[in-house]
Amino acid sequence: MDSSRQLFQYILSGLSNGAIYALIGFGFAIIYNSTGIINFAQGEFVMLGGMLTVFFLTVLHLPLIPAIVLAILISTIVGISFERLAIRPLKNAKPLSLIIITIGASIFIRGAAMLIWGKDTHAMPAFSGNDPLYLAGATILPQHLWIFAVTILIIIASRIFFNYSIIGKAMRACSYNSQAASLVGINVKNMVLLSFAISSAIGSMAGIIIAPLTMTSYDVGIMLGLKGFCAVIIGGMSSGLGTVLGGLLLGLLESLGAGFISASYKDAIAFIILLLILFVRPEGLFGKKESERF
Amino acid sequence: MLKIKNINTYYGQAQALKNVSLHLAEGEIVTLIGANGAGKTTLLNSLSGMVPPRSGQIIFNNVPINNLAAHRIVQMGISQVPEGRQVFKPLSVEDNLELGAYLHYKILGGGKAEVKKTSEMVYALFPILRERRKQLAGTLSGGEQQMLAIGRAFMARPKLILLDEPSMGLAPMVAQEIFRVIENLSREKKTTILLVEQNARAALKMANRGYVLENGRLILEGTAADLLENKDVQRAYLGKDKKEIWER
């Protein structure tokens, strides 16, 4: 394989990982924008998506689609109960206390998953086989195409939802000015609940589509969650294009770094980028435009 | 229509309203005057559920509303135009108005046609908003944002509108236009209005009745004409206006 093909291969796998990071980052951004808190339990919903799907497929022998739908549904219910039981009861809590609670919740969910499913790594069959396709000399798995398709679909759907539906606009209104939102009759607490539901659904979807490539276990949420956090920081906490670009950029740099420097630095590269961004441009690479509009 | 009985409102330990009682009849314009920090905004926020009173009763059309959440009070028919406009700056003018009708979409089920009709009424009141309807609210001038805030509150088709300092920071001409629309809302749209205003003279000229609030207590009430004649009110709240008018 010559080096240009190799490069193309790295770019391809980088972009598909990046798409996943972008989806996870979306989940962070949606909750951050409606509550001002960083939900560090976001990665656990990614884990839940993958683990639940594997559970339904291998233990209950359900077909793929019902297994996925059920997995997303249950992850969403977990997300909703998390908000109802751990976030909403705290009145006038500072964001910092709430963020610490999300860390606690993440440990709790991970622990519960370990007790239920054990510490083993589980494989999930690819959605449509493992026969690689050849594209300009690089190999691409059908699962990569699934990842791109689902990511693009979710991004388009959320754009339509937040820009054109009245509930989506109401959620944005809450993030811009929650007092004014309640003065026009929007139930801000329900919008917060909805943001938890949406971001846990998106997170679990991300976990499901990546599981066939990377396998899944009770603790995949930590790393994936942090990568998604990197993506959203690069994107300036926006629930729009910034985070998508942030995720793709992160995936690309990671994959190129792993390919040309050393695969063992893969995770280190992500966190070096995170630290650099936080030092140099804490508002994110793409955060400026958003904030100018205020 | 509205009866407030002995409400006491606190911010933490600090008491902002002390045994305040007032009433509004349907169709009235009532104004609340008082110095900065007297509790005018707090009174409006107690009414709209933003800062619920710790004790006392608020009765709106024979229903006690003092324990309702803010969004439920909007459903009852009370809309507040908050101090400092508080429009949704990154959203377009159109979207701001649409969100004003949120409860018609979600709860009362008024339907799109009804909402469209109401927004046409708002555009008729403020033609400039129609021109700017695709523009982001944050790019509007202060006066236009105030118009949008009033329009947004009207979109809920409230029975009672609470206006908090609608002329604050506006050029006199623009303020006059705002006052004209407020009178129109009252006369033609049959909306009852509770108006908090720095410009006490303009407010009293428009209002049927007024209350004077000082240090969280109501110290005076009367018809607008009586208050305009009242020596204490003239000295404390109208003096500055007299000078302004003379200079103009």
Unreliable residue stretches of chain A: 289-294
Could you tell me the CATH topology label of chain B: Rossmann fold
**What is the total number of structural domains of chain A?**
1
CATH topology annotation of chain A: ABC transporter involved in vitamin B12 uptake, BtuC
| Strand content bin of chain B | 15-25%
Query: What class, by secondary structure content of chain B?
Result: alpha/beta
First CA to last CA of chain A: what distance? 50 Å
| Poorly predicted segments of chain B | none
Number of strands of chain B: 10
Structural class of chain A: mainly alpha
Instruction: Round the mean pLDDT of chain A to the nearest integer and report it.
Output: 88
Give the CATH H-level superfamily of chain B: P-loop containing nucleotide triphosphate hydrolases
Mean pLDDT of chain B: 89
Going across the biggest sheet of chain B, name each strand in turn: 6-7-8-3-9-10
Binned, the helix content of chain A reads over 70%
Rough outline of chain A: globular
Largest beta-sheet characterization of chain A: 2 strands, antiparallel
For the termini of chain B, the CA-CA separation is 39 Å
User: Largest chain-chain contact?
Assistant: A-B, 20 and 32 residues
What is the domain tally of chain B? 1
